[in-house]
């Protein structure tokens, strides 16, 4: 259940903690056919979600690595696409940026909004190119998301540590 995630040390102070926990219960990430959230997950579901956070295996070929990367990015995309419509809208992106920056007492909500707006304009220029004055960018599709993350090493950055494994020296 969602409340079981309260005891995970690395998530305790993460500003997007709620989004990460929600992603564990997102049926799209559980590889189910439907959208929405599961009330609880079983051990197999938990392992399915944890598979998105596994490290790269050294013997992966290019095709396996590309599939592995795409799975991780799909998981991340689902975290941003909170209404499950297949697009990250400006408002959804603003919400994430505001959550990420919420711990900074020196940054006002308007500043976070400006950062999100600027990032969305950057996304539009990467994905659509030069837009006409009457053209509206509806939001980031998964294909756009893949373009934006090209060249960024998501494979080694997306992880969650569930145990506090402090090394203790024992002298006898």
From TrEMBL:
InterPro entries: CHP3, EF-hand-dom_pair, EF_Hand_1_Ca_BS, EF_hand_dom. Transmembrane segments: none annotated. Residues 68-103 form the EF-hand domain. Signal peptide: none annotated. Its main location: other. PROSITE patterns: EF_HAND_1, EF_HAND_2. It is a lipid-anchor. Keywords: Calcium, Cell membrane, Cell projection, Cytoplasm, Differentiation, Lipoprotein, Membrane, Metal-binding, Myristate, Nucleus, Protein kinase inhibitor. GO terms for biological process: cell differentiation. SUPFAM superfamilies: EF-hand (SSF47473). GO terms for cellular component: cytoplasm; lamellipodium; nucleus; ruffle membrane. It is found in: Cell projection, Lamellipodium; Cell projection, Ruffle membrane; Cytoplasm; Membrane. One of its GO terms (molecular function) is calcium ion binding. Belongs to the calcineurin regulatory subunit family. CHP subfamily. This is Calcineurin B homologous protein 3. It comes from Ceuthmochares aereus.
